[in-house]
């Protein structure tokens, strides 16, 4: 467990014991609960004490229903306190700061002086051939500059700290300190903000609170406290004073710079103004702590169903636009490998948990944590991965989720034409852009990169390679994709602390395999068929590999793996697939039959083989090459069946979908077509043998 910090007790409460007190029992006759006395201006910043009878005998609702109802009411009260929270509006910022030219000029000079001086030092280092020698020194200077310039630039530095494709390692290490090693603001201002926002004296909310913050972030700082009504230990985040005005001015300036870049800088193809607006909207969302609480609740509902994921609960009665009270989580930051291992935990296991959760976020529900730096990921003593700080969230469009998985399939197949077309669905390219010139660039990069298997590729290698392609063509990288890259590079970077050979794609492949095998999405169903069939032949080795990888995902079920293709098989649009399946079924049936005959023949005594060979039997004879091909096909099919049978959740009902398929109108003649195909193949082989036998006899005479 983490060391308990000394807690500050307000004067009126210094006789209150600091020891953790249990919440009052639910069966209590009278429960005191603070509720807002909403004023005429709509802000619930005054409280009264409401006495609520909670006798078990008189409660008409179940305990769970009552808890949910109370939680919803508390959330509504918190929303009323945040009704005047500021939202990002370029028009309002232009109106506000357009009338304050002196303030704008002074801030511009401050930023240009700081960054211009730094740029001039880099120029001198380059002229003196000292760039590499002074990297560490300059990285530390840049971190200090961002810290001095305030929250907006701290946020920019935090983003750069997770981009190994942009920054050298020395800069990554220095800028990573911006995650949690930031200046604090006076505690008296923080405590005053809590009282003002919640409309209650501090000593009526907390029995104790830490005398100084236990962490400082770019937009606020965090205290450890104990709730008075329940004794529960909580984390209380308080917003920095004047932060809205500071970031508003910076975004006004950055947006103006974006217009200049869009107009005069040709080699940057992305819409810089749109990127600034997207970034600003997310920062302003972070300024509304009620929104962050709602983000945490949604994230918890979607992803905390897994036993190894922890998301802290929100205390709505003590939350407002500038104050957030949530469940305290004991844990160790994910970049502190030694401390994690001292608790008997494995960093790689925790990172893999993070990767699987991130894949669900990015590709399953599309709602993801866009700021997963080490300070926001904790390893709990129980071995769970705790997510913190839900201010910056993002969503992946549904079409893009499928396109990303399809893009991986096309990469495996080295289908560069299809990869290029994926950029339409990913919104990298507008529909009027011709992708044919992009194909050779993709081929040049991936033909070299794919000399290794896909699972051995480093994520950074792909990011760097694709980046080189993107910059040569009119790509517009969506903001959500940049956040996806950031999320995955952070996790890969954390894993590399423990294992320099760790590969994110290797850890991700089981999830991709499971989704391809079980997801009924039409795009993914087509991608699966594309992966399994080539030139009209079924690639059993690909299916075997997908099953081997998919079984590594604990949510994989063998029964579900049959559903997508089977549904397509019986659909009106499935005739092309049915033709391929009939053809492959004939080959498999023939391979199993002849394979059994070959095994039986090989098991009999030699003198019996001599009698058979000297006899006049009219039986199809196979060349050595054909025998090997059939045995290989038969063995591949049997390995796939063994994999399905050996699944943890296997039961005979896995065959039920196949029986249902055979009852569908479109599939009633499927068996007849397979049987007819087998008969034709056997007849053709017999006829070939008959026609060849006389020639063989004549030649021997």
Automatic annotation (TrEMBL):
Pfam families: ABC1. Residues 208-538 form the Protein kinase domain. Keywords: Kinase, Transferase. One of its GO terms (molecular function) is ATP binding. Signal peptide: none annotated. SUPFAM superfamilies: ARM repeat (SSF48371), Protein kinase-like (PK-like) (SSF56112). Belongs to the protein kinase superfamily. ADCK protein kinase family. This is Protein ACTIVITY OF BC1 COMPLEX KINASE 3, chloroplastic. It comes from Elaeis guineensis var. tenera.
